[in-house]
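INTERNAL AUDIT FORM
Audit reference: QA-55
Scope: verify that the stored structure record matches its stored sequence.
Auditor: D.O.
Record contents follow.
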Amino acid sequence: GTHCTLMVGERAWLYGETAWAGSVAGATMAAPSGSPLSGQFENSSNHVLGHTGEALKGPMPPLEPNHFSSRHNGGVNFVFADGHGVFLTSSVNYAVYKALSTRAGGEIIPGGF
């Protein structure tokens, strides 16, 4: 249900300078100077929304600029579809993290994630 569905999450500016809402069609972006991510250039329209990522094992640290991330130690703040907020730590079970990012996957999500 909505209490187990991620709606909004943080994405640290350090890893990719993009607008918080909207994007310039056809523009490219790269991690800014001093970022721990590589200088790869990507279509910025892909970076409007954060995602849980296939190569990531939980929130923080990102492997791509559009993974959910933050400058907080050990995790990322999220708002769920029912409006409550949670700080998910980077040690959250990856299967649970992926299940939280679907809206109709039918996954069984244990409490206390």
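Auditor finding: record pair retrieved intact. The chain has a mean pLDDT of 76.
Action required: none
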